[in-house]
Amino acid sequence: MFALLKKSPISARIGFAIVLLNVLVAIFAPLVAPYGETSVVGNVWESFSDEFLLGTDHLGRDLMTRMIYGARNTIALAFVTTALSFILGVSLGFVAATKGGWTDQFFSRIIDIVMAFPTLIFALMILSVMGATIPVLIFTIAILDSTRVYRLSRAVAMDIEVLDFVEAARLRGEGLWWIMRHEILPNAMPPLVAEFGLRFCFVFLFIASLSFLGLGLQPPLADWGGMVRENAGAITFGIYVPLIPAAAIAFLTVGVNLIVDWFLHLSSGLHE
Amino acid sequence: MKNVLLLVGKRSLASLVTIFVISIIIFIGVELLPGDVAETVLGQSATPETVQAFRQELKLDLPPHVRYGAWLKDLSHGDFGTSLANGRPVAELIGWRFANTLFLAGMAALIAVPLAIVLGMLAAFYRNTFFDKCISIVTLSFISFPEFFIAYILIALFAVQLNIFPSMATINESMGLGAKIYAVLLPALTLTCVVTAHMMRQTRAAIINVLSKAYIEMAEVKGVRRLRIIMLHAFPNSLSPVINVIALNLAYLVVGVVVVEVVFVYPGLGQLLVDSVAKRDIPVVQASGLIFASAYIFLNLMADVLSMLVNPRLRQSQQ
Amino acid sequence: MQGDNILKIENLFIEGYYEEQWNTIVDNVSLNLKRGEVLGLIGESGAGKSTIGLAAMGYARQGCRLASGSIKLEGQELMGADDETLRALRGAKIAYVAQSAAASFNPFHKIIRQYAESPVQHGIMGYEEAEREAIEIYRRLFLPDPEKIGFRYPHELSGGQLQRAMVAMAMACEPEIIVFDEPTTALDVTTQIEVLAAVKEITRKMNKAALYITHDLAVVAQVAHRIMVLKGGKLVEEGEARSLIKNPREKYTRDLLSVRTLREEKSLTEDMDTILRVKGVEASYTGKERVLEDINLTVKRGRTVAVVGESGSGKSTLAKVITGILPPLKGTISFFGNDLSADLASRDRDALRRLQMIYQMPDTALNPRQTVRTTIGRPLEFYFGIRGQEAEERIRGLLTKIKLDPDSYIDRMTTDLSGGEKQRICIARALAAEPDLIICDEVTSALDQLVGEGILTLLQDLQNEMNISYLFITHDLATVKAIADKIIIMLEGRIVEQGEKKQILAPPYHEYTDKLLASVPEMDTEWLDKLLAERASSYLETVPN
Questions:
Q1: Which superfamily does A11-40+72-268 belong to?
Q2: C306 neighbors C480 (Cβ within 8 angstroms)
Q3: Which residue ranges make up each domain of chain A?
Q4: Cα(C146)–Cα(C144) distance, rounded to whole angstroms?
Q5: CATH number for position B208
Q6: Is residue B238 part of a domain?
Q7: pLDDT for A131-190, tens place per residue?
Q8: Is B81 left (phi over 0), alpha (psi -120 to 50) or beta?
Q9: B33: distance to nearest CA of chain C, Å?
Q10: Which residues on B lie below 8 Å from A254 (Cβ)?
């Protein structure tokens, strides 16, 4: 892993640096944040100063502090949701591909229908009915997103499934579980890892958009999408506070995408 | 040709069934409301009269399948029910907002589609050059940006700094076409950035895939001119994937419009949907959700049908 | 009939970009081609023969470059010539026929339009004239229904027809030279004859010069005046076709030429153990169309049964039915006297163990994420519960058996092996189960000739040592001659003939067997001419005046 990193191009290294920075900040948020998450410490929309590195927000809270806690809340939520979506999507996808027949038909038709419905609209409708609480948010997005993961992992597993070494394992008498674990999964790893990165970006942006629309994490919890919304009014006064959390979102997504790009390049090169 | 019609027919039928199933899901969604729907939605300040009105509006006294049937029947007459928030008919609320949304999405598509195809083709032909790499980095960034980030950058630049466009896209029915276009230019530009990036990357990939085919090499060793190879050999074969890419991104556009409408306080369907979700105005949410879903499904259907039509294998089958 | 040099390549070096650097793939090759002469370029994969063929047109594939040397076409230097000059020559003076016609025709346009493109673009003739000429040349190349066939789309023609349509397309501008790049490799033997006849028509009757690229010496012997043998991008030897085949100077050429040693006859008697008996089997993928009908066969202990047929004959489906992947609609399969259940899931582990399989493509038959140790160790663990030190010793023993050095191979990833080595690992994996019968599905057809022969020799040695039976599925009659005790010939899902080798391969022949045998090119430069003459005369006899 370290050797690979040494050979990686500059773009991937930048990506790694960005992700690492964000993750560290998120983990050690209470240690690095200058003030408390919700404490009002200054006036409304104060500009940059030694006291408030990034100025203050619409309620006079330190923006730097809000950003740091925002990293923690937003990234953790996106990560948990993506992980859940993956567990769901990959296991259903693999089962559909290896079992085939009715199982496959059943899952695939359901997922066709869910995918025919635009994700954002679906999510908005569910949230309007169930209310925007964190568990509802996680499950709704994870289930909607797992349809994409299902499609990919099913397709990847189908490609591997037809190869002779899988047939050889079947002829040997190996069970379904063993075949999925030892023959299919190791060969499906490169596309799945790349997809995890892409799905994380998608979920992360999606949650940010929902928060921006006022339907994600609820105040006073700090999260980047919500911070853009709260401070949106500032922009017409020529105060660019909302651009800071928006840029942070963009920054992290670019970082993850740079790594995924390199990884895709790497794994396609290894295949040749 | 008969074959294609059959396939198109089958595909359209599948879309109809999907819309039907989705209408059921939307309907059941309301059923799943925990506790007493009326009180949950209306809150504690609800008077007995408003609760009663709400129950009547949603016909909560009848059994579910009867209600579903009645709802569907009303829908087919263009009756979407009455808004809980302000008591106006939903159809009236939705009507011109939907037109506004289509206008905005259409503007964005008009700029994005030709731009994406030209850029995609150029990037494919000059692949791995400096030009290609620049384009690749720019599009990768645009894909990574949330829509509202692009929107606020554009506002900061064009509305606040340069002061040439309004930061809010307010339009009304009395405005002329020119004024309307001027008003929606910034939101349309925002959407264009996002959609072009996706579309261009996929177009590039589709064309590179075709250019690596053996028949392109054959045309080259036959001494056919490069431009002719591109126009007559590469282009028709990449048509099907590219059409698919365009239609899918238009479908995305219809949905992506929601966030942009909120940023620019644009009176479109997306804005209405978000407001209604916040107010839990269920009939409006149901109706606008169904419209968005139908538009999305329709564009996906177009993608499939068009790529079937340009595929010679299907068009020219023997039977 | 042969005159001056029309193509002259001198000291050609070509480089390819892989593993992050430029590597020489054609190493100092020179050749001369005279007007009306056919030069055969022969070699195994990686010999650089296709690259040279394309270089003759001043063309290098993506990721390759013409590094140095000289390529002169009618005295004109192509090395470093500008794109427009090269474009004007390609198709007009020198044309190309690719290996896969199915991939080389644009699926979007009709065949005849693609024929006309080159002459119209080069300003040689108008579209209508090109169409008339196309029909004429389709007729000369024996395409069925020449007036109409051009107005179809590529996917509506068969493989052999498309290949001939591509030969026709190469002739569109009446070029001086045609480069044939393995034009018959993807075809069945009986279809190959049609294309070879078309090639012969062009080179002999129309007196065109040609570079004929192939890996099959017997094929090139039919069409070439001179032959160049290439290996690893270098010239091995060059000579007049007849004399090179009769008296090869280099050992490599002799190896390529050597007729496979026929194995000693083993007796097949009624009282021998029958280990596999297939009775009245019918099978179908869809439930309607039968891909196998009325299949009856037996395999005896320690003997090899070869199942021969062209593509679509159902021979691979037969393997699927026996292994239980495709349960038959009717009929029984018994193994050591016990009926095997039709589907895989309900067969017992011991039956599975005793019946092993080796595949055509060693690349996909091995899990690319496993080491040699895991690959061979798994059946040991699965069937016998052998693990740890004992497994290690067994694996090393098996590697020695397949003639790979245990120390240097046991820890390798399967992706780090060559095609031949991979196939050997597949054999070891099958042997680890200590099977009684191994089904070999086209095990040599994805390998180079010499490597494939190594595998056949190994399989024979293993049989002699361990008394294993083989069911050998193949399209290649040369392989059959080399290894079979018993031959089964299949056509369109049925067995047309079966019996002991000496009986099948001696007259009187069954009609289809005769056609198959006659279609296999022989190492005799006269073979194709004789065959075509024979067919023509028998055709004349049957047509009343």
A1: MetI-like (1.10.3720.10)
A2: yes
A3: 11-40+72-268
A4: 6
A5: 1.10.3720.10
A6: yes
A7: 778 888 899 999 999 998 998 899 889 888 888 999 999 999 998 889 988 999 999 888
A8: left
A9: 46
A10: 140-141, 144
